[in-house]
Amino acid sequence: MAARLLLLRVFPRAAVPFGRGRARLAPTSVRAMSAGGIPTDEEQATGLERRALQAMKRGEDPYSMFKPKRYAGTKDDPHIVPSIGDKRLVGCICEEDNSTIIWFWVHKGENHRCPQCGSHYKLVHHELPH
Ligand SMILES: [Zn+2]
């Protein structure tokens, strides 16, 4: 009886007598989150985050969020240099333990070689997402 009174006090419209000495909660309006569980990132993302998630779903990487690919640096498999312009300054650490960086410009349309180690670099146009 005390539990029924408590329910009536807390949920005055929801408690409906059911059986002897019991109360059943009447259906109330249900929010989407409680019915379908916790929404996913795609369902609740908005704005820039939503655009990034949609691009990642298509396999694109507009904000360079993925780990960069490794290239051999040969003529057939040059290092890819993404750029929004026609040229980009590149620094080559020729050997793993080098403390100096060799800087040179890579221009659109032609492969460039590092003057010290000979690695090949190729400029590829990169479109900014916005
Ligand atoms: Zn080099």
UniProtKB/TrEMBL annotation:
Q: Which UniProt keywords apply?
A: Acetylation, Membrane, Metal-binding, Mitochondrion, Mitochondrion inner membrane, Transit peptide, Zinc
User: GO biological process: what's one of them?
Assistant: mitochondrial electron transport, cytochrome c to oxygen
Any idea where this protein resides?
A: Mitochondrion inner membrane
Give the Gene Ontology MF terms in alphabetical order. Answer: metal ion binding
Under InterPro entries, the record lists: Cyt_c_oxidase_su5b (IPR002124), Cyt_c_oxidase_su5b_sf (IPR036972)
> Mind telling me which GO cellular component terms the entry cites?
mitochondrial inner membrane; respiratory chain complex IV
Residues at which Zn(2+) binds = 92, 94, 114, 117
Q: What is its main location?
A: mitochondrion
In this UniProt entry, the residues modified to N6-acetyllysine are 69, 87, 122
Q: What is this protein called?
A: Cytochrome c oxidase subunit 5B, mitochondrial
**Which organism does this sequence originate in?**
Salvator merianae (Argentine black and white tegu)
